Amino acid sequence: MTNTATYDLLIIGGGINGAGIARDAAGRGLSVALCEQNDFAGATSSASTKLIHGGLRYLEYYEFRLVSEALAEREHLLDIAPHISWPLRFIMPHVKGLRPRWMIRLGLWLYDHIGGRISLPHSQAVDLNRLPASSGLRHDIARGFAYSDAWVDDARLVILNLLSAQEHGADILARTRLAAAERADGAWRCVLENTLTHAQQTVTARAIVNATGPWVATMDRLLNPAPKSASGHAAVKLVRGSHIVVPRLFAGEHAYILQNDDRRIVFMIPYEERYTLIGTTDVPQENMDKGARISADEEAYLLRAVNAYLEKPIAGGDIVWRYAGVRPLFDDESDNPSAVTRDYTLVLQDEQNIPCVSIYGGKITTYRRLAESVLDKLAPWTSTRRGSWTKQEPLPGGNFKRADRAKEVTRLQEKFGKLAPRFLGQLFSRHGLNAYNILREAQTHEELGRDFGGGLTQREVDYLVLHEWAHSADDILWRRTKCGLHMSEQQRSAFAEYFAARGTRAAADGAADRTQHPITN
Q: Pick from 213, 310, 386, 520: most CB atoms within 10 A?
């Protein structure tokens, strides 16, 4: 990208919404740039409950359109990302004194039918004492209901959308912030700044999309200091969702959805083979000045919620990882954070006929449909070569039928027969068919370079840096992979030291190269 670049669309924010819009727009033939001041999926989009779901509890708030759309999107995402997503069966134990059985049956019947074509098994009543293995629940909890949803690696979903956008011609600008923007001469004139080098460049864009998540309202005020609409700026309600991860609590590949006495629900989900993911909370957050961190009260809430069901209660000392994300919900003036709509709202400001669309709300499940809606909103100012397309083309590494996932893993394991099958399965779950590009002709673990532990090798690290914009140890350990969860503290520290030294060497090599080939602006 040069200092005089002109784009049809500049997207600010590298979470799932920004990534999805960049992919869709670039695939329609628009010239696209996306900038993210930190790491891609560095905030909310890597801190979800990692579900592709319609949102069963949203039916209680009459969000029928949202649930229907989300269920339809669940089918599309399972098709285009079969390597990083898969179906998941949920069991809801029934407890007297909470939602009655008739209400649950009615909700599940709606859930089975309002999403159109559904390929996953429908809901049914279950006897918890007849599960293939111990339920892990109290013995007096014997009845419940089962239904289907799906799981996804949220941070990988962002990266794969960005890779696809890049393949379709988009410029993906990592660690680059919008320093200034103004409407001038029929277009946006924007100053972009690299947050590492502080180098600046000016670009122009015919339209801007503000996809900055929890910072959407702040960015909206920067881009539209005097909004044209009579209502002024939209308001955002920040709601924190926190999670904890503990050693595996129950056998089987199903998840649990647990009713709580405050009418919220808490999930227990099999996670990374050896663990159980527990979440989430709904707590108002005042601002993003200190980021998102789980509070002691939230931790106690989640422990209390699951211990009401577990045969063997857990405590804070069992927690091996904690994380939190902030949902940037459209403020509908609800007093109950759980009741605030998870639907998305697109706010268009088109002063001087130069548009800006700001995104409020949304859920990871509906990101692809949201992207289509944004492009529909911008249609009067853009001219595309084709219409919607993203539900047909697989994401990078996912060019196989979801029913053939196990066959593809087996094929990978057969080709690289001297490598550990579990290691290959983990690699496939991150990269799908692109695992072949990482392994190349390696037939032994020694050929993959240094083994950092937790299933992470030097060969994959090199790939993540070269192709997936990884710049820090955390980018790799907790977002591009979850290998950090499988490593000891000593291994994580050793990798951080290695990566820092690697960066120092790269910077020195770059400085030497710039001395020989100075950059001129």
A: 213
